[in-house]
Q: What sequence folds into this?
């Protein structure tokens, strides 16, 4: 099956239909005659190029930040314990 090429202006119009005119992606894809996966790809690319993220992506990023902060705190505690242990063993060696 041949891959269909769409003009950039058509892609931008499709993205605008979803983002500015509040169409749901399945409705927009059906009315434009493109696959839902194709439209979602165009939306994702638009968001990536313009630095815009959707609510789910933001939620995932916030969750990841919390996880990393917890890991960072745990690693700092472990580092401090290892510093104290190293100092204690060094003291015993003298």
A:
């Amino acid at each position: 099956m041949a891959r269909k090429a769409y003009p950039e202006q058509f892609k931008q119009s499709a993205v605008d239909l979803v983002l500015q005119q509040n169409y749901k992606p399945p409705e927009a894809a059906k009315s434009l005659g493109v696959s839902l996966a194709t439209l979602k790809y165009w939306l994702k690319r638009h968001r990536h190029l313009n630095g815009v993220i959707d609510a789910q992506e933001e939620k995932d990023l916030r969750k990841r930040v919390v996880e990393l902060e917890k890991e960072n705190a745990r690693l700092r505690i472990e580092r401090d314990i290892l510093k104290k242990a190293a100092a204690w063993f060094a003291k015993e060696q003298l």
Summary: The helical segments are 8-19, 25-32, 36-50, 55-93. DSSP finds four helices and no strands in the chain. The chain has two domains: 7-52, 55-94.
